[in-house]
Design a protein that fits this description.
seven-stranded parallel β-sheet, TIM Barrel, binds zinc ion, 9 helices, 257 residues, alpha/beta
Amino acid sequence: MNHDYHVHSNYSDGRFLRQMLGAAERAGLDAVGVADHCNVSTRSEPARYKRAFGFNLDITYERRREALRDLATDFDLNVYDAVEMDYHPTDHDAVASFLADAEFDYAIGSVHELDGVNVHFEDYFAKQSAAARREHVTTYFDRLVELIESDLFAVAAHVDLVERNSALRDIATDADYRRVAEAFADSRTVPELNAGRVLSEYGEVHPTPQFVDVLVDHDVSSVFGTDSHEPDEIGPRKEELEQFVATHGVMTTALSL
Ligand SMILES: [Zn+2]
Ligand SMILES: [Zn+2]
């Protein structure tokens, strides 16, 4: 694995750019993409969340771009100026016009929110009936298919994010995976092998081996993303992804940038 397309920096919820680039170089990567969180929704909940967390990349991306150009000269590494954007169909036009103006090297699209709350929120979903939780999982994959079909993103992040939440885990079926894989097969968007929780409580790569099998059946290749927020996460997560690929026969690719 020579490319990590998904790390964060202090331009959203990660550590200083210089530390992240230094760790990427030490991990033996040829290229790293800094994909900070960005949300341009005018819906009230995402706007409130963005203000509360101080996710300002929609305002600061030009400053970060200058910093990346400047810092890249200090490291033996290709550095990509990327973004991780929340996608909801309601925000399609706002996301499209922002991406057209900002001209990042590439964009990652994510579904982080269901029912107006973050997918990680265990208590919210744990209180609900089995039928309601099944409905949320269906909605998650509906949103993901819409993200893929929007044609706005080079990469779709952590494509089974619902697995991270124990209340939404082990509900998805091959039928869910098949409709996602069919959307990828018809799109320029590729899925990401994501290591964001591989060394913490979830302990698995996204997507699950079962989902990987369906992607492979549809000739869909994936890119690597450690989703690191701390410098020390990059190297160990890179090793986990390499191990996963060796074990599960994932088809991998690189973005043409
Ligand atoms: Zn994400
Ligand atoms: Zn991320």
